Amino acid sequence: MKKRMIYLSCIALLLGACSSSDKTKEYGVTDTKSCDNALILEANKDDLIKDKGSIYCAVDENLSHLDQVTAFVKAGYQAERINEFLKLSYYQDKLTDRYIAYDDQKKSVEDVVTYVNIGLDQPYFTNMDTIQDTKNPLMLINKYHKLPDGYEPVDLTPTPNACVIGEDYSCQSEPQYLVKEVAEAFEKLVEAGKQEGINIKAIASYRSFAYQKNLYDYYANTEGKDYADQYYARPGQSEHNSGLAVDVTLDNENFNEIEKSPHYQWLLDHINAYGFILRYEEDKVPVTGYNYESWHLRYVGKDAAEEITKQGLTLDEYIARKAGK
What we know:
Pfam families: VanY. GO terms for molecular function: peptidase activity. The chain is α+β, with helices and mostly antiparallel strands. It is built from 16 helices and 8 strands. The chain has helices spanning 2-8, 11-18, 21-25, 38-43, 53-58, 66-74, 79-86, 96-102, 109-118, 180-195, 209-222, 225-231, 264-270, 285-288, 302-311, 315-320; strands spanning 129-130, 145-146, 156-158, 177-179, 200-204, 245-250, 276-280, 293-299. The chain is elongated. The two termini are 18 Å apart. Residues 1-21 have low confidence and may be disordered.
């Protein structure tokens, strides 16, 4: 705040400095006509950036992002790429150092900011965040965000068209439940499928923490922890613990070969109209942190589902790009 007051109180000096070639040349500024930020050059006496004045003059908004711009300049960035960072609505000042450390200059600025916002610049399960708004159908549950310990949805209702063990192929558990809003949306999806001669069957939906722990521990003990973390979420970090996710199969086919069904494309083309997305896509494994699951549907609400699908994003990316400065 003190720096800002100094800057604002010296506007006259700013204008005068911009018209003085001798003054601005001291800071590496050659085009004095385009320099609107000489005040920063006057205020900042860091020898490392003293000859980088032309970069400051070409950067937008640097009065409000002085510390961030300086970090980029010290890291050797040019004004064009700095501007790309600052113009993003989901760029976060507090993450500037992490953006710089993660940026290999090969990824787009959009991807760098998105992936760091997700947390992918750091090992999984670090800086774990406990979800506060558990009533939000858009809540992000992954390897960086977990549900409160012992969480259980309060409005669970029986899952429509749920499988029956011993009768239906690939049935994983019964009885099954979903959050009421999700169950109602899934029922509409099932009915729409029936109109097309497609039987969309739920093979797994809500799971308790105890169920998820037993599932995870079994594979961690038999296949190893790395395998379990790739294919099975830890308790509290599984979407199934939220009651917002449902695994499906089509026409009683093997669930893990569902994409081979002649009706699978119909499913992908219509789920967003009912508020669902395919959560773990094949080409997004590095983003989601989980293996491809062609059968795992996640409810996020109709508007978000259509926007996520249209933009070709995962839920992780979508949430990361909604973060404000």
